[in-house]
TrEMBL record:
Organism: Bacteroides sedimenti
The name this protein goes by in its record: Aminoacyl-histidine dipeptidase
InterPro entries cross-referenced by the UniProt entry: Bact_exopeptidase_dim_dom, Peptidase_M20, Peptidase_M20_dimer, Peptidase_M20C
Alphabetic keyword roster: Hydrolase
SUPFAM superfamilies in the record: Bacterial exopeptidase dimerisation domain, Zn-dependent exopeptidases
Entry keyword Hydrolase: yes
Record-linked Pfam families: M20_dimer, Peptidase_M20
Transmembrane residue ranges: none
Residue span, Peptidase M20 dimerisation domain: 209-294
Length: 488
């Protein structure tokens, strides 16, 4: 029996382009290879193709004959992907292609993120641009840069770069759902400065490593109660310091602001006579965490090993301030939308901790569909760290996308979906940062919808795409383009 390959999946027009994208390294901040690839693709089709000053790729395709009177459509996706891998996986995201695995009806990667977020959207856009049998009005492909690390491409987009009236964002993760609004967000960074102190004579160093957590998307999966590696690590550290005279030298956890941290490690020193008790505490915490998260997490691993003595330690007072503030900081869901009680309104992700070499840095991504609640949350976090003596800075803030239930393209797409599949699509607001909010602020008046195929666990090595959903998503996209409203 012949083994399935990505290129043999339906619709082949989409999957062949997605396969090409898996061959091209494209983590956020390292986008020249994929940018060049997309520009070459557009030019190979003899379409107007260019990059703007912030690195977005824009490709224009004229309307098919007889469709010139339709509203112009912008097909939008982002070119970058989140680089996450399992601790035991050897993979260089700036050099190595993604290794894919077909597992029944799901496509996943071998120990890394897959890049279906948002490679599936980019692949669908490429398929539309390439296919001259489709019926559509004027089209523009807008493939944005560095969405995952701060939506920099969307922020830098100029109004004059785009001509369309309708924007179809292809970056949602549930086929059959149309998103008409999203949460806003802001990055909070707390920084501690310190001068290292000397290691006590007779002490030994132990490295403790926490791994095996599921992680995931800090917007889409923040409501699932998954463990946060940074939060679990400080529980251990606080007890180790209080009971076994541990001293903190290094603490690192998480690496992406919009990914729930899956792994963390710390290096502590302790009196040699306390080593066995510290190891018992590690074992106790491993059992406790697995018990507390049973049914949500599987096989949380917490291990201790001897290591070389560090060159210095965090001073005791700063050490306690760092640990206590991380311990106290809001993390997870803060509130659901009162009028839509199954949708998260406000949340925070204690995403990254890095303590070493005289600097302690904590990064949190706060999200909310309400600007006032976002301000309340960020002020709470600021107060928590300010009281501990940290310098707190806010950056990368963006407002949410206000839903428009009377959107003309929404009504057209609802009718089209029901005609194709016999059921009404769900219309929702998403608790994640879609570029629609930023693009809509830069270019007022756009009629916007976000949709896509079914993905699970983006931003983690468990990321996967439901293969049958891709054909439905693409068929729906094609039908939407055929039924674009006429210009006013």
């Amino acid at each position: 029996m012949r083994m399935k390959t990505i290129q043999s999946l339906a619709p082949e027009a989409v999957w062949k382009h997605f396969y090409s994208l898996t061959r091209i390294p494209r983590p956020s901040g390292f986008l020249k290879p994929v940018t060049d690839f997309l520009v070459d693709f557009g030019k190979s089709l003899n379409l107007e193709t260019f990059t703007d000053e912030v690195g977005n790729v824009i490709i224009r395709k004229p309307a098919t004959p007889g469709m010139e009177n339709r509203k112009g459509v912008i097909l939008q996706a982002h070119m970058d992907m989140v680089p996450q891998k399992n601790n035991d996986k050897e993979h260089d995201f700036e050099k190595d292609p993604i290794e894919t695995i077909i597992d029944g009806d799901w496509l996943k990667a071998n120990g890394t993120t897959l890049g279906a977020d948002n490679g599936m959207g980019v692949a669908a856009i490429m398929a539309v641009l390439e296919d001259n049998t489709l019926k559509h009005g004027p089209l523009e492909a807008l493939i944005t840069a560095d969405e995952e690390t701060g939506m920099f491409g969307a922020f830098g987009l100029k109004k004059e770069s785009i001509k369309g009236e309708i924007l179809l964002n292809l970056d949602s993760e549930d086929e059959g759902e149309l998103y008409i609004g999203c949460a806003g967000g802001i990055d909070v960074t707390a920084t501690f400065q310190y001068k290292e102190t000397e290691v006590e004579e007779g002490d030994i160093a132990v490295k403790v490593t926490l791994k095996g957590l599921r992680g995931g998307h800090s917007g889409l999966e923040i409501n699932q109660g998954r463990g946060n590696a940074n939060k679990l690590m400080v529980r251990f550290l606080r007890e180790a310091i209080a009971t076994y005279e541990a001293r903190l030298a290094v603490f690192e956890g998480g690496n992406m602001r919009n990914a729930i941290p899956r792994e963390a490690y710390a290096i502590v020193t302790i009196p040699a006579e306390n080593e066995e008790e510290l190891r018992e505490l590690v074992e106790y915490c491993e059992n406790l965490f697995n018990e507390e998260y049973a049914g949500i997490e599987e096989n949380i691993s917490f291990q201790a090993e001897r290591t070389d003595l560090p060159k210095g330690l965090v001073p005791e007072e700063i050490q306690d301030d760092i640990i206590n503030s991380i311990f106290a900081c809001q993390n997870g869901v803060m509130r659901f939308i009162p009028s839509i009680p199954d949708t998260v309104e406000t949340s925070s992700n204690l995403a990254i901790v890095k303590v070493a070499d005289g600097v302690g840095e904590v990064k949190i991504l706060a999200r909310s569909a309400s600007d006032s609640m976002k301000e309340f949350l960020t002020t709470s976090i600021e107060c928590c760290f300010s009281m501990a003596g940290a310098k707190v800075e806010m950056s990368g803030g963006y407002s949410g996308w206000d839903p428009d239930v009377n959107s003309p393209i929404l009504n057209a797409m609802k009718s089209s979906y029901k005609a194709q599949f016999g059921v009404e699509p769900a219309v929702k607001v998403i608790h994640a940062g879609l570029e629609c909010g930023i693009i809509g602020a830069n270019i007022p008046g756009l009629d916007m919808i976000s949709f896509g195929p079914t993905l699970r666990s983006p931003h983690s090595p468990d990321e996967r795409v439901y293969i049958p959903s891709v054909k439905k998503f693409y068929d729906f996209l094609i039908a939407t383009l055929e039924q674009t409203p006429v210009k006013a």
